[in-house]
């Protein structure tokens, strides 16, 4: 939603400008990272002017490490946000994927470029073209996430951020 995009953009800009902030952690609410965009909004006349691609570029270019704390699901645009982060920590029960292809849509926020860089072309093509969801343990083996935890994902992401 526009509110989420705006809040993330404002938070990242504020963190980058604040010398006391050493790293940024992005997490979802209620045990879910992000299910991505509401596709009904794509055809709305009130579509947000901001794009997910702009936010993702802002995350990637942050001067400070940005860590994604992935719980529940990171799908579609949610996974693309996580891909833009410098590091990713996932809960062992988390799932990731780009399901929009099942609706005839290609990932539109550079996920098709970032995913192959992280996990290689064959595995990325499989996820991109089939909409396949993968569990956190497979994501770790592929290199999509840096760490998988059974504990509090937010705390683990903060520890990783402090380490880097």
Automatic annotation (TrEMBL):
Reactions performed catalytically: (3S)-hydroxyhexanoyl-CoA = (2E)-hexenoyl-CoA + H2O; a (3E)-enoyl-CoA = a 4-saturated (2E)-enoyl-CoA; a (3Z)-enoyl-CoA = a 4-saturated (2E)-enoyl-CoA; (3E,5Z)-tetradecadienoyl-CoA = (2E,5Z)-tetradecadienoyl-CoA
GO annotations of cellular component type: peroxisome
Keyword Methyltransferase carried by entry: no
Keywords of the record: Isomerase, Lyase, Multifunctional enzyme
Keyword field contains Nucleotide-binding: no
A molecular-function term among this protein's GO annotations: enoyl-CoA hydratase activity
Origin superkingdom: Eukaryota
GO biological process, one term: fatty acid beta-oxidation
Family matches, as PANTHER family: 3-HYDROXYACYL-COA DEHYROGENASE, PEROXISOMAL BIFUNCTIONAL ENZYME
Membership in a protein family: In the C-terminal section; belongs to the 3-hydroxyacyl-CoA dehydrogenase family. Belongs to the enoyl-CoA hydratase/isomerase family.
Protein name: Peroxisomal bifunctional enzyme
Lineage of origin: Eukaryota, Metazoa, Chordata, Craniata, Vertebrata
Name of the gene encoding the protein in the UniProt record: Ehhadh_0
């Amino acid at each position: 939603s526009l509110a989420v995009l705006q809040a993330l953009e404002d938070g990242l800009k504020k963190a980058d400008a604040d010398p006391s902030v050493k790293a940024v952690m992005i997490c979802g609410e209620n045990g879910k990272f992000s299910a991505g965009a509401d596709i009904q909004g794509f055809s709305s006349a009130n579509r947000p002017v901001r794009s997910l691609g702009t936010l993702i570029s802002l995350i990637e270019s942050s001067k400070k490490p940005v860590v994604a704390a992935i719980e529940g699901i990171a799908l579609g645009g949610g996974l693309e946000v996580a891909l833009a982060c410098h590091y990713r920590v996932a809960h062992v029960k988390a799932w990731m994927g780009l399901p929009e292809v099942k609706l005839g849509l290609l990932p539109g926020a550079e996920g098709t470029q970032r995913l192959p860089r992280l996990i290689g072309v064959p595995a990325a093509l499989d996820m991109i073209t089939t909409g396949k969801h993968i569990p956190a343990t497979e994501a770790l083996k592929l290199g999509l996430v840096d760490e998988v935890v059974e504990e509090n994902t937010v705390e683990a992401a903060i520890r990783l951020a402090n380490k880097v």
